[in-house]
Amino acid sequence: MSGLEVRREGAAAWLTLNRPEALNALDAATKDALVAALREAADDADVRAVALTGGGRAFCVGQDLRELEGAYREGRTPDFADELERHYAPICRLLAEMPKPTVAVLNGVAAGAGVSLALACDLRLASTAARFRLAFAGIALVPDAGSTWNLPRVVGLSRALEIALLGDWVEADQALQFGLVNRVWPAEELERHAAETVAALAAGPTLAFARTKALLRDHLGTDLADALAGEAKAQAAAGQSSDHLEGVTAFLEKRPPRFRGA
Ligand code: LHQ
What's the pLDDT at 1? Predict the structure, then answer.
């Protein structure tokens, strides 16, 4: 049985990692379910935002190390290349590249690849109970699941090296200061604020959001001339959308826009 629960809240898909007894460590069934649920959410035009959160006191503590226990005890080392390609790469690509906003709702501890999943999302909303540890160095591994790409882009190279090499816990307030998370609320208020934020994203101009996230991500690696050309191409398409017409009409009529994601 997988440790993933999927539910719809209006136009948002909420994916909850739910193996609280193992702090939502990622076993094979949960990773399979996560890949499938993300693919479905990415392809479903009725889903206009995706939230990833955890049940219990953790967000996610990364790879389920117990799942590999037998092999380790027999002195066999696992094939991480295969595992990363099969599960973690599709999960991280889907979170970063799907054409709608993705949000990590960080209810508690995040470690190892759990931090990587949060980093792969477009936004990170946290409770004061959230804390972060990259944890890879503790078991003599390198950061993976996209975190060597995402972490320095999110917090800058110096902080990324600090987080990866010193291995200290980053508490919620410090994570906010580092830019590792976008918002922090008291634990008892996270659910309400996160639900409001995700619902607002799901009610937004989905096609413009899709183009915006693609442009911002793509342009990290391009020069200004290519970025200007990329913006012009995307803007020409955005200008043809019915949400653009609605947005401008609503402005002229002095009322809030009603976006349909088209
Ligand atoms: C766990 C885990 C866990 C299984 C707690 N697995 N059960 C590697 C390979 C390939 C590809 C992808 O990437 C990676 C990178 C990774 O993600 S490797 C894993 C990195 N994560 C960690 O190293 C975190 C390990 N966990 C901890 O250090 C502690 O559990 C923390 C500090 C997170 C929480 O400590 P406590 O609050 O004291 O809780 P606990 O240690 O008592 O854990 C509660 C339960 O959760 C416990 O089960 P038990 O049956 O003994 O009560 C833990 O065994 C289980 N658990 N992490 N990764």
Answer: 87
pLDDT in tens, 200-229: 999 999 999 999 999 999 999 999 999 999
Cα diameter, the chain: 71
Q: 210-219: which pairs have CB atoms within 8 A and are 24 or more residues apart?
A: 210/99, 210/100, 211/237, 211/238, 213/101, 213/122, 214/97, 214/99, 217/96, 217/97
Alpha-carbon span 51 to 192, nearest angstrom: 13
| Structure tokens belonging to residue 114 | 């759990």
**Burial category of 259 from C-beta neighbours within 10 Å (exposed 0-12, middle 13-18, buried 19 and up):** buried
| pLDDT given for residue 79 in this prediction | 87
Centroid of ligand 1 to alpha carbon of 256 (angstroms): 46
- Tens-digit pLDDT profile for residues 228-258: 999 999 999 999 999 999 999 999 999 999 9
Contact 7, 41 (CB under 8 A): no
Mean confidence (pLDDT) of the chain: 96
What span, in angstroms and rounded, lies between the C-alpha atoms of 247 and 245? 5
Report the nearest atom of ligand 1 relative to the CA of 113: 17
Instruction: Give the whole-angstrom CA distance, residue 38 versus residue 200.
Output: 20
State which ligand 1 atom lies nearest to the alpha carbon of 135.
23
Query: Which residues fall within 8 angstroms of residue 238, CB to CB, at 6 or more apart?
Result: 207, 208, 211, 244
Q: With a 6 A CB cut-off, is 23 part of the ligand 1 pocket?
A: yes
In whole angstroms, how far apart are CA 131 and each of 87, 106, 217, 249? 24, 9, 26, 44
> For the chain, first and last CA: distance in Å?
36
Is the pTM of the predicted complex or chain greater than 0.90? yes
- Rounded to the nearest angstrom, the distance between the alpha carbon of 65 and the centre of ligand 1 is 7
